[in-house]
Design goal:
One of its GO terms (cellular component) is cytoplasm. By secondary structure, the chain is α/β, with parallel strands linked by helices. It is built from seven helices and 14 strands. It has a seven-stranded mixed beta sheet with strand order 6-5-4-3-2-1-14, with no helix packed on it. The model has no long low-confidence stretch (mean pLDDT 95).
Length: 343
């Protein structure tokens, strides 16, 4: 078992291809999906731009821009890579989606900035209401869902320049579903398991015409923070039972155009496997949920466990090869990079 924290390379930001986000504005990709990695498990996803709109619906997952992921700003894990931009530079967002209440996924200072600047709707798993209340977020703006609950969300987007509509807006719709994961929750020492944890699924709803039924466009899955199985020391991981929820998700939704899947914070395995996937687990989740493309997350930001900081993406490539999958179906993008996904 490793007992010392891993060494951080001096050029870590260069190796992670740190860059200021462009949010895909420098691409001709209005009809495509855009995903921007903002560090750890934070991703901005923008759905395709509807005809006549200036942008697509924007979903911000697990935004954390604080230096430390801990109750105190003075102790606890500190970033070894900078956020690619300040929280204040996040463009207008429509909803914020939280996977669970751990400090590396639910950051009060960041959520306060987003409330003050954008006043979006906030979504989280069951029983996270009190945190939103403490952040002075209106009860009409936060929504806590159980596993398999969904909401159809309607967003009025600003019309494109030169486009005239009655309200200067264009409507877009998508469905958000709270899906299971294998994890836990707490923000203090006495509240473990008091709130739910989850993954999330997004389905773009395309309204073809007044007489036609809506159809589903792009589908995205956000893994949040999760384990896949529990492994004792010396056990063969491939022979250990695994969580069936991910196959259930794949069966329910059919497939996903993009999956955002955690890959880091997995060693030592006996202690961490119940809560955090290894790269081997990550590839199996990719297969279980029937994803077409995956981007890695939950790495490259804080030292939370003992594996070398650059090991997770290297092991992903090895596991893909073992599974007979192409290396380009599951990749780690640059920090701040926007990846364009085609249908």
């Amino acid at each position: 078992m490793l007992t010392a924290s891993p060494t951080i390379p001096d050029d870590i930001e260069q190796q992670l291809k740190w860059q200021k986000p462009t949010w895909g504005k420098d691409t001709n990709a209005a009809e495509k999906l855009k995903a921007t990695w903002l560090g750890h498990a934070s991703f901005m996803v923008e759905l395709p731009t509807p005809v006549g709109a200036s942008r697509g619906p924007r979903i911000l997952f697990d935004p954390v821009f604080s230096h430390r992921c801990f109750p105190s700003a003075y102790v606890g894990p500190a970033r070894y890579t900078r956020p690619p931009c300040p929280a204040e530079e996040i463009p207008v967002i429509d909803i914020v989606v939280i996977s669970h209440n751990h400090y590396d996924h639910m950051d009060a200072p960041t959520l306060t900035i987003l409330r003050e600047r954008h006043n979006p709707h906030f979504f989280a798993p069951l029983n996270n209401d009190q945190t939103f209340v403490e952040l002075d977020i209106s009860p009409t703006r936060f929504h806590c869902l159980d596993w398999w609950e969904d909401r159809e969300i309607s967003v009025d987007l600003p019309a494109a320049q030169g486009v005239t509509t009655g309200s200067n807006t264009v409507n877009a719709q998508f469905r958000l579903t709270c899906t299971p994961s294998q994890h836990q929750s707490n923000r203090g020492v006495l509240d473990r398991y008091h709130t739910l944890w989850s993954s999330w699924a997004i389905e773009e709803i395309r309204v073809v015409g007044e007489a036609a039924a809506p159809n589903v466009g792009f589908k995205v899955w956000f893994g949040g923070d999760t384990g896949y199985r529990h492994v004792e020391n010396g056990q063969d991981e491939d022979k250990v039972p695994h969580c069936p929820a991910f196959k259930e998700i794949g069966d329910k939704f059919g497939s996903f155009d993009l999956a955002l899947i955690p890959i880091g914070a997995y060693n030592p395995r006996q202690e961490m496997s119940s809560w955090h996937v290894s790269p081997s687990d990550s590839v199996r989740i990719f297969q279980d949920i029937k994803a077409k493309k995956a981007l890695a997350m939950h790495w490259g930001t804080w030292v939370l466990t003992f594996e070398p900081v650059l090991e997770p993406p290297a092991l992903i490539a090895q596991e893909l090869k073992k599974a007979g999958l192409s290396e380009d179906v599951f990749t780690a993008c640059g920090l701040g990079e926007t990846v364009i996904i085609s249908k």
